[in-house]
Specification:
0% of the residues lie in helices and 46% in strands. The chain is mainly β. A 4-stranded antiparallel β-sheet has the order 1-24-23-22, with no helix packed on it. A 4-stranded antiparallel β-sheet has the order 2-3-4-5, with no helix packed on it. A 4-stranded antiparallel β-sheet has the order 6-7-8-9, with no helix packed on it.
């Protein structure tokens, strides 16, 4: 991070902004409670409440892209400018695609996803409830561009949360909610997941041992950035926390890399948004896979 520049407040009094993603131009999109959903406070989000999809360009204005997204639970950027959100549609839960500046929408797959990430080749990983799964019923699905889906080959024996691809898209990182861990899974040629293991060990406050890891992002050098109640925890490729960067707004609920150079780190809290310039570049899963250098001990 730059030594001469700290966090800059760019927005406040927001209504639980969450699930930030960026397109290839570095524009930020995120979900937020609708104005009429004041009962869904930042401290206790009502999942069935309608949400608004917002767009923000660093240094520019905030623009509402779509309102009334009922039960919106996660957001991911896709190819050709499409954005996908898990919502409650007319026929039930679905992953809905909308395109800023264009009319119409499309349904990707009928899932109530809690986390979603799209790969550069158009396939996606979606964490969703599966009534046929053993244990708690959380399954990571591999979703094809045509919407067909199948379990990705693993049924986690833990409570999974945020998903994130490595810069070269050979690994999928999965947050273990209510623990210190982020798991790493190898991605096979057919997209299935193999050889999962606990890999990144994060820090959590002693008085809140069940805090959740809210979001995961990576940079082009292979570092993992984790949104936690202590701030942004930055891990090296070897799985170690190198530093924890606190954010003035308190716990971090989401993060992303923005701007044309992907060198603006954006941190979301329960009602504020901060930015900070960094020396590294964020890795966008829509870009061609980038293999980082070997980790240094």
């Amino acid at each position: 991070m730059t030594a001469d520049e700290g966090w800059k407040l760019v927005a406040e009094n927001r209504r639980h902004p969450r699930h930030p993603v960026t397109d290839l131009a570095g524009q930020v999109y995120f979900l937020e409670n609708d104005e009429q959903s004041r009962q869904a406070t930042p401290e206790r989000l009502t999942w069935g409440a309608p949400a608004t999809l917002w767009k923000w360009t660093p240094g520019g204005e905030f623009t509402a892209v779509r309102t009334g997204l009922k039960g919106a639970r996660c957001l991911a950027a896709g190819g050709e400018g499409w954005l996908y959100a898990s919502v409650t549609g007319a026929q039930g839960p679905t992953v809905l695609g909308v395109k800023p500046g264009a009319a119409g929408e499309r349904e990707l797959t009928p899932l109530q996803a809690r986390s979603l990430v799209l790969r550069q080749d158009g396939r996606a990983y979606a964490l969703a409830f599966d009534p046929d799964a053993d244990g708690h019923g959380d399954t990571i699905f591999l979703v094809a561009p045509d919407g067909t889906r199948r379990p990705a080959g693993v049924c986690p024996d833990f409570h999974p949360g945020a998903l994130c691809l490595s810069p070269d898209q050979t690994l999928l990182y999965v947050a273990h909610q209510g623990s210190h861990w982020v798991h790493s899974f190898q991605i096979a040629a057919d997209g299935t997941l193999r050889h999962g293991q606990k890999y990144y060990h994060l820090h959590l406050p002693d008085n809140r041992p069940l805090d959740e890891i809210q979001d995961l992002k990576v940079d082009t050098d292979g570092r993992l950035y984790c949104a936690t109640s202590l701030g942004v925890q930055i891990c090296d490729q070897a799985g170690r926390v190198n530093c924890i960067v606190p954010v003035p707004g308190g716990g971090v609920t989401g993060l992303c890399f923005a701007g044309p150079d992907a060198q603006t780190l954006v941190a979301f809290t329960k009602d504020r948004i901060f930015t900070r310039r960094v020396k590294t570049r964020g890795a966008n899963p829509l870009a061609p896979p980038n293999k980082p250098g070997a980790p240094r001990l």
